[in-house]
UniProtKB/TrEMBL annotation:
Lineage summary: Bacteria, Pseudomonadati, Planctomycetota, Planctomycetia, Pirellulales
Pfam (any one): Exosortase_EpsH
Protein name per its UniProtKB record: Exosortase
Keyword hit for Lipid metabolism: no
Assigned keywords, A-Z: Cell membrane, Hydrolase, Membrane, Protease, Transmembrane, Transmembrane helix
Residue runs in coiled coils: none
Record flagged with keyword Amino-acid biosynthesis: no
Length: 301
């Protein structure tokens, strides 16, 4: 009676077959890729999508020393089965998306398929190497309409309230009514396009990428990710507040529009600057233990 080997060792014909499967999947998803590219081009909230695959490949390159090579390219049958199950889940989601005419579900079906291919091809070693890149691909996918609408509404309300309070602190008479800030001379409407979702999604992606790249303790990376939404709101509040200050001065419409657009351009640099300050502050939070070694090093292990 022959025994089943615990590991599956990949040979050249196996990789050729996998290449054919990958090409077939790419062909099957051509319509989905076209829809994604169209969304990146037409939806300002998804304009960062073009950069996501590039950053994902860059993360793979940065972690290339962890990639399975040569004799280490052995895959346990359990990982092959787990990868097959993930691919099957992705295929089921794709079919469901087609049946229910949901391009969002079709796009999200890519995630389990990509993860399944990684597991089936390289097992644990490949997953350990590639999981940051696989996870980062989430940022190129559209948000479900329910979640996106809820975020836009809440962010718009938060931006209005925070900007109105900031103007009051600066000594400018301001009252918020709905999504409109009434000044002493005129009203400033916080439009849906100014809700900050575009800024939030892009900056959140940058923060996650920074966590994958920076050599910091886990707790600092968690703080970094959790603070990203707050920093995004602060940057958007700065934009609306600056616009309100200019409107209060009674300048011309062209000057007001220029300041509004200029503040939008510097939102991301401002957020990154705040992020750098946060990293500097976190670097100083080092508590020595009894042996004199930094407690931070213990948390990072």
């Amino acid at each position: 009676m022959t025994s089943i080997p615990r590991n599956r060792v990949w040979s050249l014909p196996d990789f050729a077959m996998v290449g054919i499967i990958v090409l077939a999947l790419a062909y099957a998803y051509l319509a989905v890729f076209a829809e994604l590219v169209g969304d990146w081009s037409s939806n300002p909230d998804m304009s960062h999508g073009y950069f996501v695959p590039v950053v994902a490949l860059w993360l793979l390159w940065l972690r290339s020393e962890m990639a399975p090579k040569g004799e280490s390219w052995r895959v346990g049958w359990g990982w092959v089965l787990a990868g097959g199950a993930a691919i099957s889940l992705g295929a089921a989601l794709r079919v469901g998306g087609i049946l229910f005419r949901s391009t969002t579900v079709e796009a999200w079906s890519l995630m389990p398929i990509v993860a399944g291919l990684v597991m089936a091809l390289g097992g644990w070693k490949a997953l350990r190497w590639a999981w940051p890149s696989v996870f980062f691909l989430v940022f190129m996918l559209p948000l479900p309409s329910v979640i996106g609408g809820m975020l836009k509404t809440n962010l718009q309300s938060i931006a209005t309230t925070a900007s109105c309070y900031s103007l009051q602190v600066l000594g400018i008479p301001a009252i918020s009514e709905g999504n409109v800030i009434w000044l002493s001379t005129q009203a400033v409407g916080v439009a849906e396009a100014c809700n900050g979702l575009r800024m939030l999604t892009s900056f959140f992606a940058i923060s996650v990428a920074a966590c994958f790249v920076l050599d910091r303790p886990i707790w600092q990376k968690v703080v970094l990710v959790l603070s990203a939404p707050m920093i995004g709101v602060i940057a958007n509040t700065f934009r609306i507040t600056l616009t309100g200050i200019v409107y209060e001065q009674g300048v011309s419409e062209s000057v007001s529009e220029f300041v509004h657009d200029f503040a939008g351009w510097i939102m991301m640099p401002l957020a990154i600057a705040i992020l750098m300050v946060e990293l500097w502050i976190l670097s100083g939070l080092v508590l020595p233990d009894e042996s004199g070694s930094p407690y931070e090093e213990q948390l990072s292990t």
